[in-house]
Every structure is written in C-alpha cells, then in structure tokens.
Amino acid sequence: MRFLCVSDIHGHADELRDVIEASQAQFSWDKLICCGDLFFPGPKPLETWRLLIEHQALVTQGLQDR
C-alpha cells in the first residue's frame, strides 16, 4: 500500500487538488494522510474539507485546527 502524506494545507484547496492530481498520476498512491493544520487560516477551508472527504483522507489535528 502506498501513502501520500501532506501537512500544513491551511485551507489552500486549489494547491491541494494540484498535489493530489499530480501525485496520483505519477505515483498511484492508495491512501491520503494529512498531518494537521488543515483549514485555517486559509482561503478555502470548506473546499479543502470536501476534498479530504472525497479522498477518504486519514487526518490528524494540528495546532491551527483546535
């Protein structure tokens, strides 16, 4: 099983989408893992959340997520 691990997204949904698409095409990973600081402060926290749900990401809470 291959993992894509990201952190410190801070609500940048467009950039997260770019990383997901590029890495999936190049590496074909099986599970997305997000290591904190997912939504705030950032321009698109709700869209970021939707992307993580769509990809059934495993997430952990970061300092900015409290």
Report on the structure:
This protein is an alpha/beta fold. The protein has one domain. It has helices at residues 13-27, 45-54; strands spanning 3-6, 31-35, 58-60. The protein has a 3-stranded parallel β-sheet, with no helix packed on it. Strand 1 (3-6), helix 1 and strand 2 form a beta-alpha-beta unit. The termini are far apart.
Layout of SSEs?
Layout: E1 3-6, H1 13-27, E2 31-35, H2 45-54, E3 58-60
Provide a quick synopsis of the model.
With 66 residues, this protein is of the alpha/beta class. Helix content is 38%, strand content 18%.
Instruction: Give the CA-based shape.
Output: globular
Number of strands: 3
Assembly type of the chains comes to: single chain
From the N-terminal CA to the C-terminal CA, the straight-line distance is 30 Å
Largest sheet: 3 strands, parallel
Main structural class: alpha/beta
Give the helix level as a range of percent: 25-40%
Question: How many helices?
Answer: 2
Our count of domains comes out at 1
The string of secondary-structure elements, in order, is EHEHE
- Trace the largest sheet across and list its strands: 1-2-3
List low-pLDDT spans: none
Alpha carbon gyration radius: 11 Å
Overall pLDDT confidence:
96
- Name the beta content range: 15-25%
